[in-house]
């Protein structure tokens, strides 16, 4: 039986630092966060249109003798003891906690609070794929604080949590952006030394998350808006198992605090991976049967003829998850993202096969391209790139995937955008 590959294209134990940065104050039972460098205390509140704010402020009396707002003493935990006519004028609000004065700042965004060895991470980070210091993870601790209580633990009966805290393994991310002053982070949730899946901020249940700095984008919103538009334009061309699956990431903006200091506005997102794209899992080897690859996922990292799908110099040897090496960039074009448990799973041949197909005559291409690619996905991708002039996504910063290379109708190549 003749087989086809259909591609899908999409836009794209250790010691733990346990400083949760809980400053001993809660507004409506949601923890407040202190920026010790700027003498500011931040409170996250639910999104609202009206400027008037009433809330219940509570504090740990073992830490503080009393709390005053704008020189007016408050009664600990009394309902609606905090009242402001305009919460948006944060700079004018002074919170006196014990003997110390703080500026009280409100935000309608969730807070992410991280403790990690950021100086060491920055000093050692390498932007080069394949370098140990590019992927090295560091122990840390993270809290996610959300006034809307959307975070939910796996298999938990609790409707939602205002504050979720976890050990993490974290590393910096990005190529050229990795050298910028404001860093982006990859985060892995950990419990008892093992990864743990959590519905953070109401998004899918997972252990891997991203905090993107958007440093070179002065609007700080271009990538998120483009990704949201893309996922509305182009959905997965096959069945989904849940509402979280799609042809791009989901996310929102948060305020980040690192090591007790306000770090800035960040975009919090999930990741493009096997679960996001609903790719079929690799069948594990048994005593009598070898491992069987099914779903495949690759990421275009650096510009090359191979990532432009125009030509390749040599067929891959499949002895690494990175191919090919680009001497001028001191890096690699493609990176295999799934399967990626063992280097023996490396498999770049389908990319070469699609390049060969794109270079055949027009007559044969026209007669067979729908058996190699998801037609609407390719049309959407090309039009989207051209309409918004996404030059950084033409030869890199996108994904290729195969849902199931064992089934002819699922062997087409798909393309996904990467923000």
Descriptive report:
There is one protein chain. With 419 residues, this protein is an alpha+beta fold. It is built from seven helices and 27 strands. Strands 6-2-3-4-11-10-7-8 form an eight-stranded mixed sheet, with no helix packed on it. Strands 12-13-15-16-20-22-21 form a seven-stranded mixed beta barrel. A hairpin with a 2-residue loop joins β7 and β8. It is elongated. The protein starts with 5 loop residues before the first strand and ends with a strand. The N terminus is likely disordered.
So what's the overall shape?
elongated
- The poorly predicted ranges are 1-5, 12-20
What's the total number of strands?
A: 27
Specify the biggest β-sheet: 8 strands, mixed
Helix content: 10-25%
Report the sheet-strand fraction.
25-35%
Q: What is the strand arrangement across the widest sheet?
A: 6-2-3-4-11-10-7-8
Q: How many DSSP helices? A: 7
| Helical/strand content category | alpha+beta
Termini, distance in Å? 39 Å
Summarize model confidence as the mean pLDDT: 91
The value of Rg in angstroms is 24 Å
What does the secondary structure layout of this molecule look like, with pairings?
Layout: E1 6-11, E2 22-27, E3 30-35, E4 40-44, E5 53-55, E6 57-59, E7 67-69, E8 72-73, E9 82-84, E10 94-97, E11 100-107, E12 111-115, H1 118-124, H2 132-135, E13 138-145, E14 152-153, E15 163-173, E16 184-191, E17 194-195, E18 198-199, E19 205-206, E20 208-212, H3 222-233, E21 251-258, E22 261-269, H4 274-277, E23 296-300, E24 322-326, E25 331-338, H5 349-358, H6 362-368, H7 375-387, E26 398-402, E27 412-417
Parallel strand pairs: 1-27, 4-11, 12-21
Antiparallel strand pairs: 1-26, 2-3, 2-6, 3-4, 5-9, 7-8, 7-10, 10-11, 12-13, 13-15, 14-18, 15-16, 16-17, 16-20, 18-19, 20-22, 21-22, 23-25, 23-26, 24-25, 26-27
């Amino acid at each position: 039986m003749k087989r086809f590959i259909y591609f899908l294209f999409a836009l794209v134990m250790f010691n733990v630092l346990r400083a949760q940065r809980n400053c001993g104050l809660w507004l409506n039972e949601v923890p407040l966060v202190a920026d010790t460098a700027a003498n500011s205390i931040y409170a996250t509140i639910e999104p609202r249109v009206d400027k008037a704010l009433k809330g219940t402020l509570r504090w740990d009396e073992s830490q503080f003798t009393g709390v005053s707002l704008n020189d007016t003493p408050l009664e600990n935990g009394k309902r609606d003891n905090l009242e402001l006519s305009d919460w948006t004028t944060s700079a004018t609000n002074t919170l006196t906690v014990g003997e110390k004065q703080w500026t009280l700042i409100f935000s309608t965004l969730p807070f992410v609070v991280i403790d990690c060895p950021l100086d060491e991470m920055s000093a050692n980070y390498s932007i080069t794929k394949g370098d140990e210091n590019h992927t090295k993870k560091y122990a840390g601790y993270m809290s996610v604080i959300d006034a809307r209580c959307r975070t939910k633990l796996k298999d938990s009966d609790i409707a939602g949590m205002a504050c979720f805290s976890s050990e993490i393994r974290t590393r910096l991310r990005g190529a050229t952006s990795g050298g910028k002053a404001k860093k982006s982070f990859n985060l892995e949730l950990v419990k008892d030394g093992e990864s743990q899946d959590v519905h953070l901020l109401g998004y899918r249940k997972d252990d891997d998350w991203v905090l993107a700095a958007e440093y070179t984008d002065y609007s700080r919103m271009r990538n998120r808006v483009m990704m949201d538009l893309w996922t509305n334009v182009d959905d997965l061309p096959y069945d989904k198992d849940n509402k979280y699956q799609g042809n791009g990431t989901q996310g929102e903006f948060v305020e980040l605090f690192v090591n007790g200091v306000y770090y800035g506005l960040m975009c919090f997102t999930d990741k493009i991976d096997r679960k996001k794209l609903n790719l079929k899992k690799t069948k594990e080897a048994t005593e009598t049967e070898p491992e069987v690859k099914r779903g495949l996922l690759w990421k275009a990292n650096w510009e090359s003829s191979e990532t432009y799908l125009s030509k390749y110099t040599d067929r891959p040897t499949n002895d690494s998850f990175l191919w090919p090496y680009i001497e001028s960039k001191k890096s690699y074009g493609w990176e295999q993202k799934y399967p990626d448990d063992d280097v023996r799973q490396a498999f770049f041949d389908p990319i070469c096969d699609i390049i060969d197909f794109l270079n055949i005559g027009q007559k044969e291409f026209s007669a067979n391209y729908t058996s190699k690619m998801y037609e609407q996905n390719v049309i959407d991708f090309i039009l989207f790139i051209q309409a918004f002039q996404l030059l950084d996504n033409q030869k890199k910063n996108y994904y290729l995937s195969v849902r199931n290379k064992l089934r002819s109708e699922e062997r087409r190549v798909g393309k996904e955008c990467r923000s």
